[in-house]
Amino acid sequence: MQTIFVLLKFYTNMVRFFIRLLCLALWLPLAPALVAAPHIPATVEVYYSPRGGCTEAIVKALRAAKVSVLVQAYSFTSPPIEDALAAAAKRGVKVQLILDRSNLTQKSSQLAEAVGDNLSIKIDAKHEIAHNKIMILDGETVITGSFNFTHNAEANNAENLLIIHSKELAASYTANWQEHDGHSELYDGETAAKTKKSERAAPHKTSFATR
Q: What pLDDT, in 10s, does the model give residues 141-199?
């Protein structure tokens, strides 16, 4: 009788063990999804150059902006993009640009036109190169990629452009934009004059601003 009791207890424990093993096997495939980072819902538009409609897509997005446009640009030589930014500002959109300091001396830069259109401009001279190429529209759309805001990027270079519709992603990019805004200097004529003087005195460096 005692032997039967021991066997029943043994088999009961074995059944419990296999049930636990089965539950573990069923749970393991679900584990990565349960512990993964939160999903950021987004709609993404993708464009390529040369002549793949990148500039047109940016202009179209800027025409749809209603509240704000935040820009970080290394090279800024595209008249259609500057025109679209100016048009946005004229209809009441708050447009703010942070540009790399190379725009102070680059003859093809749209900096002078932007000043003439009363756009808010700061120069980020803290870094060796302020190489970001982004726009944040209305706190809900991010434009980014390798695409510089230039004619060459549209007509000659192999580039990519993403237009991402995501409030969560836009919030992250906005926070980073604000960090750079904090150490950038408001553009004025004196800033340009000082930069030109220092670059004339410094050893020559190849400029890639028109890319």
A: 999 999 999 999 999 999 999 999 999 999 999 999 999 999 999 997 555 444 444 44
CA-CA-CA-CA dihedral for 77, 158, 145, 207, to nearest 10: -40
The neighbouring-strand residues paired with 141 are: 137, 165
The answer to whether 107 is a known catalytic residue is no
Confirm whether 133 is a catalytic residue: yes
Residue among 147, 133, 139 at smallest CA distance from 46: 147
The rounded distance, in Å, linking the Cα atoms of 192 and 204 is 18
The percent of residues in the chain predicted with pLDDT above 90, rounded, is 67
pLDDT in tens, 8-23: 566 666 667 667 766 6
Q: Which residue out of 138, 151, 167, 180 is catalytically annotated?
A: 138
126 as an active site residue: the answer is no
Catalytic residue among 100, 122, 124, 133: 133
Catalytic residue of the set 131, 151, 167, 180: 131
